[in-house]
Amino acid sequence: MSPETPRRPAALQSEVVKADFFDKIGYSTVWEDERIIEQGLAPAPGERALSITSGADFSLQLLLYDLEEVISVDFNPRQNFLLHLKKAALVGLDHDTLWQFLGLRECRNRVELYRSLRQSLPSEARTYWDAHTGDIARGVLRCGTQDRYLHLVGRAIRFLQGPKTVAGLFSAAGLDAQREYFSRHWNGLRWKALTWILFNRRVLDMAFHKDHFRYAHAQEHPAVLLRRQAERVIRDIPTRDNFYLYWLFYGTYPDKERRCPAWLRSSNFEKLRKNSDRLCVRTAELETFIFEQPTGSIDCFNFSNIFDWVSTEAFVELMGQVVRTARPGARLCYWTNTVNTRRELAVACRTYPRLEERRALAEEIYRVSRTPGYSSCTLGVVR
Asked: Where are the domains of the chain?
């Protein structure tokens, strides 16, 4: 198929869209390391980006780069309802109140704050949140299925390892001290037993959905794979500044200036408000939406980890549409869940010669990635 001649792929839809996991908000934050946006996609002023909404953090982060437009797409309308609410809170509240409203600081009047914001929401989002004020009262960053699972993991670890042991992770002075701390205080029988419980396939299927792991590795047990990734982060990545781990254990971020997602930093607040009208939110399956886009119209593609749930054939077909809709020099990124089989960009590159993998940069970003749960990230460029 020529990437210049669009045709609707025969069978790109993943069965995961039917999973009951997506009958609700699956993700209320983004668990992938945000360095993939700044260093991997390297957005530039005046460009157009297409971003999977997911927990909405990356779609909002992209507004920091003075893009012409950020198109945020998700087939689950509830993820987009969350994005609309985050945007409304960003525009309608001061920075301190934004943190309180989201659930990152103590707040007794979140529902009242929501009522002050609801008229700025699209009607469908307003209807949804009117019916889910309990999630708002608890803080919407806690409502995602994945985030609830992560906080369950964090609470279980704090209980069995002990609060002081967990707190010690964030006070180690340098990697040598951190590795010694891991060896002496963390890497014992309780830790290994806990990972067998929390990361076994049955628990993962209940917490998410079995279709999430349709293309799982057959060779190794998921608990072994996930423990290996968790230990990489706890042992080999500096924990003092790792706000992802802090979110896991404490359900908030250490500070508003630096150790939190880019879209929540005080230094970025005014710029995000200024650029908020450049955000376009669409509810659609990516395969359908990208087919409708003009040839040569997009500069950045953030695909999250959506290719975990499609076959190699569907992945290659979709990359053809990426090449068609990409402007020269366009960049793309995606992640692979630790449990699943990676979709190799090199396979698509053989079919579409304009597509080139940026493996060295991707490996460097992954090497210092602050989040467990992923076995790799992938970067590509369309020449």
From this structure: 145-250
β-sheet bridge partners, residue 302: 51, 333
Spatial CA neighbour of 144 closest among 309, 291, 30, 293? 30
- Which residue has tokens 């009117």? 130
Three-state secondary structure call for residue 105: coil
- 276: which 2 tokens? 């908020």
- The sign of the dihedral angle between the CA atoms of 318, 360, 365, 68 is negative
Q: Which candidate, 246, 281, 335, places its Cα nearest to that of 60?
A: 281
pTM greater than the 0.85 cutoff: yes
**CA 284/CA 12 separation, integer angstroms:** 13
**Tokens read off for 98:** 């934004």
For residues 156 and 170, what is the distance between their CA atoms, to the nearest angstrom? Answer: 18
Give the three-state DSSP class for 333: strand
Tell me: the pLDDT tens digits for 113-161? Answer: 999 999 999 999 999 999 999 999 999 999 999 999 999 999 999 999 9
